[in-house]
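Notes to self after the Tuesday call (sharing in case useful).
The group wants a holo model before anyone commits to mutagenesis around the pocket. I volunteered. Ligand is 2-acetamido-2-deoxy-beta-D-glucopyranose. Logging inputs and output together so the record is complete.
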Amino acid sequence: MKTTTFLSALAASAIVSATPTKTDKQPPSKRATVPTVTASGNAFWTGKDRFYIRGIDYQPGGSSGETDPLADTTHCLRDVEKFKKLGVNTVRVYMVDNSQDHDECMTALADAGIYLVLDVNTPKYSINRADPYLSYNGAYLQNIFATIDMFAKYDNVLAFFSGNEVINEEPGTTVSAPYVKAVTRDMRNYIKARKYRQIPVGYSAADVAENRMQTAHYFNCGPDEVRSDFFAFNDYSWCTSDFVTSGWDKKVQNFTDYGLPIFLSEYGCIENTRDFGEIKALMSSDMTGVYSGGLMYEYTMEKNGYGIVQIKGETATELKPEFDNLSKAMKANPAPTGSGGASATSAAVECPTQDSVWEVDPDILPEIPAEAQAYMDKGAGTGVGFKGTGSQTAGDSGLSTSNSTSAASSSGSKGDDSAAGRSGISAVAVTGGALAATLFGAFLL
Ligand SMILES: *[C@@H]1O[C@H](CO)[C@@H](O)[C@H](O)[C@H]1NC(C)=O
Ligand SMILES: *[C@@H]1O[C@H](CO)[C@@H](O)[C@H](O)[C@H]1NC(C)=O
Ligand SMILES: *[C@@H]1O[C@H](CO)[C@@H](O)[C@H](O)[C@H]1NC(C)=O
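Result:
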């Protein structure tokens, strides 16, 4: 089916100059089969319609190995059929090899109406929480910018993750937060400088109660240039329970007025049986005003036991009843129509105060290394992919030589002009957003 479509598209473009016909199709990477998703207010949108992430985490082999599920066409096409059966509209992929081609898989996903949330980091090209200063260097930024170059052309790229669980429950890991925030800023600047579509960029936080709120606030505080486009966190507190028992009611309360789209980058506790009642809650008015859905962890069965499909060789076997339970939960709880109570305006929040849990000076952010700044104008060039030697100790590729001290917390209203601007919403809405944000900013003072 989708394979045939793709092959015929290729065939059509190959003969296009010889015998042009009305039915000629564009090459895969140029075809716009899905509307692009924008972040605006505290939600995602396709045009005027609210967009909810009804997704699944997709990383066969687990996130510690190096595999690129989007470069493996045969297995991708097999899995897309399962995604369609599940009724998901988004997959999250934890790493890709930016030296490989992804056209066929990305096209198959788009043809199925499925979006991608992509982690730009790989195990060897990422911020090292043990030495964030050294790992925030030119070689690292070159490689993640090359990943952006490769994926920005696909309309079904929903968002990029600038980091995944860099800050965790270990003492001392919060000192890496300014570097991840700098990376988020740099990615957003790169997307702007290269004149790509304004693909949302944000961080995916670990399921750590002790610093969840600080992390969320930190990524949405300060001038607009340093704020994320959304925030996501992993949450395993719903163990076949309900909205109140799981504590999700508190997580709605705590994030009300957060000011940016929020979603769960991983959910799906396995302590009890799995009926995926999470989806009913996520799609209900209890949550839609604050949350934009989530991603069930995960598709393939790995050593940690969260999968709903067993991969053996070429075969993907549905695990029962989990696979059917997820598919049923998706069907029984469609995305609600209307705005779902989303806020039309985005806003900054106050930076978390520096203390023994959150060891971060809110006013200091590392400036981009000069070597990486150069990519803004000339482009990053080709990515090194999984074969690269790694960037974490590549200090000689260029390090940050100064700190910005203008990352203070008091400019919420300024931020909102451009937050609304990047979403491409109408001029009227922009004005309204800026006004409301000014009022909100005044409340903070
Ligand atoms: C809600 O926020 C408060 C204050 O930051 C925090 O102490 C509490 O742990 C949060 N609760 C949840 C469930 O996130
Ligand atoms: C599947 O869902 C049903 C309810 O729809 C539930 O009774 C059953 O326990 C679930 N199975 C597993 C293994 O979680
Ligand atoms: C930037 O600030 C951090 C944290 O205070 C500090 O460790 C680092 O040395 C500073 N970097 C420069 C280049 O001044």
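Two things stood out.
The mean pLDDT is 87.
The chain has 13 helices and 15 strands.
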